[in-house]
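Subject: Sanity check before I submit

Could someone independently write out the structure tokens for this chain? I want to compare against mine line by line before I put it in a report. The sequence has 65 residues.
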Amino acid sequence: MAAGLRYCLEDKDIIEYAQLSAEEKLQWLEEINAFNRIALSDEAKRMHAMFLGKIPPDASSEDTS
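---
Independent answer below. Compare away.
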């Protein structure tokens, strides 16, 4: 497999998520974000920030406070 990230969802999971209310979707998102703040390494957080364009690719890892 090539380098990078691959994530697949089953159709049933997509349908189940689509049926959630807006409040339930926001609660889910908040829970995932809270988990990520705890679970991800500093390097993973830096890479995520670069992916989102929040920091330039050449920024040092000290720039992600």
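---
OP: Matches mine. For the report I'm noting this point. The radius of gyration is 15 Å.
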